Amino acid sequence: MTSKKRTLSVVLAGVLLLSGVATAGMGSAAAEVTANDSLSVTVDQADDYSATVTVTHNGSAVTNASVNVSVTDDNVTYAGAGEYVTDENGTVELSAPAENVTVEVAAEKNGATGATSATLVADATEEPLEGSLGVSVSETDDGATVSVTHNGSAVEGASVTVGVTDDNTTYAGAGDYTTDASGTVSLPAPSENVTVEVTATKDNATGTTTATLTASEGEQSFGNLVSSFVHEMLNAGDDGGPIGQAVSEFVTENNPGNASEKKPDDAGKPDHAGPSDNTTAENETDEGSSQGPPENAGNDEDGDDQKGNGSGDAGNDGGSNGNGNGKAKGNGR
Description:
alpha+beta, Immunoglobulin-like, five-stranded mixed beta sheet, disordered C terminus
């Protein structure tokens, strides 16, 4: 009985041994390739941004294949670049990139080769921005545009603060903004000339610039014109006289409400409304001494002096009627 048990154990051991050899032989056969064969190479990136290289031949994994990983852009570095050997699954694991990178992957075994390229995407949330941000302001037809960049690339989601440098000036565009996908912020047109300070921040990077925004003539009100004039005088240290007098003269000359200042030289009363101002002035200067009663109009006082004192000839001619003292106006005596 004991010998039968021993015999059975030996048989079972032999079967297991043969099964192992057969399995190993099948695995070796699947991995064998020749120089005339071509290898299929694929690269798949996982959710954690790591990547897996898989080498196959006719759908079967190729073990112990040499794999070379290199970057295509000399200005980009990748920690996963280098030499590898595929495992029993015909795969190689690559680390997650610190920045977006395109890699070239070449595989070789027994003279059989294969290659592919792939772009590995970096997790943008892992690497905060460092250093300086580029901030620029450009005027447009309807306002201004702030652009924020980092190493030449647009920065989305940057915090932008716009403020005026002169406390006596106001600007409707002052405030806080966030850059869009193209790294820009739109500002409204100013109602008066204004100098703004623009500061952008994201992560550990920041940048600042100043710019003068110019108001168009249509946007500038008369009040703003007066304000600008006063500021110019104050900044220039004008000592040409009392500032109030200068402002008054400026207002008189430039106020659009002063219609009389803009009246044409030939403007005046209509012809049917009586003599114009110019005619009156001329009469006062040119005809003042000649104006008076008509020449044939007598002067009572002068007439009295010229009353005739005749000798009564007319009375004598009249016969019995009077003493000849009749009066007659005239120059004769």
